[in-house]
Amino acid sequence: MSVFLSRLVLDPRSRQVRSELAHPYEMHRTLVRGFERHLSDSEISAREKCGMLFRVDPDERNHRVVAYVQSLLEPDWGYLEGLGGYLLESLGMPGATCKDVSEAHARLHDGQTLSFRLRANPTKRLGKGAHATALKGKRIGLVREEDQISWLERKGGDGGFALLRSGSDDSAGDSRGAFAVTVRTEGKHVGRKRNDGQSHTMTHLSVVFDGLLRITDASTFRRTLIHGIGSAKAYGFGLLSIAPPRAP
What is Dmax (Cα atoms) for the chain? Predict the structure, then answer.
């Protein structure tokens, strides 16, 4: 199975880019157009058919925005060049690049340590208890850092990886220190989704996790990379980015 990873450098001076940063579902609609030659179904199933996940990382130091797009189908970003400054090209570097990372995924193995970044929408579903029955079954965001890390720890247990702890020797079962994970809560992102001429307001809690993980089941971990983690994937959540750990 091929897996493609694209890096798009966006110009924050573009009116369309600024609008889509405020309304990520609109960026999702723009990015899906990169797969039009593969798609014949409705837009509702387009993201799932091309296996698209994306994340936007602002780069304020260099006055740009970087969007990472992962997909199972090879995109064609040529149309972005006609969107009036949507892409930012500088110093001879292209605004859009794409590479096949399937061979790198195939080399992943049990026990391997990786650094990672994930923007996620950690939630829990309300059950019985102190809440009104009208809220039963409703999903709410997890606002406490310890709950957010516990959420990610559970996702790792199901997803073929374990979070490393500070001072860990990478051996299985090491439980010394706190998790080697930094958590940055970006607050609630309020955006709109337009379907069939109607606009719907959607609210998602955005949390960015950076840290170290150890692969516990490489086969399961590869599926996690492909399918992403958590909910609201059409709003820029769920893409798990991995890299070799940085030298101390």
Answer: 59
In which band, very low, low, confident or very high, does the pLDDT at 173 lie, cut at 50, 70 and 90? very low
In this prediction, residues 194-219 reach a mean pLDDT of 88
Question: Which structure tokens are listed for 130?
Answer: 């102190």
The pTM assigned to this predicted structure is 0.88
Same fold, 4-104 and 110-243: yes
Specify the CATH superfamily of domain 4-104. Crispr-associated protein; domain 1 (3.30.70.1200)
CATH superfamily of 110-243: Crispr-associated protein; domain 2 (3.30.70.1210)
CA atoms within 13 A on the CB side of 46: 19
State the SS3 of the chain.
CCCEEEEEEECCCCHHHHHHHHCHHHHHHHHHHHHHHHCCCCHHHHHHHHCCEEEEEEEHHHCEEEEEEEECCCCCHHHHHHCCCCECCECCECCEEEEECHHHHHCCCCCCEEEEEEEECCEEECCCCCCCHHHCCCEEECCCHHHHHHHHHHHHHHHCEEECECCCCCCCCCCCCCECEEEEEEEEEEEEEEECCEEEEEEEEEEEEEEEEEECCHHHHHHHHHHCCCCCHHHCCCCEEEECCCCC
Query: Cα 13 from chain centroid?
Result: 24
- Whether the predicted pLDDT of 172 surpasses 50: no
pLDDT band at 131 (very low <50, low <70, confident <90, very high): low
- Tokens for 47, please give them: 């993201």
Q: Which residues pair with 211 in a beta bridge?
A: 116, 181
| pLDDT score recorded for residue 192 | 72
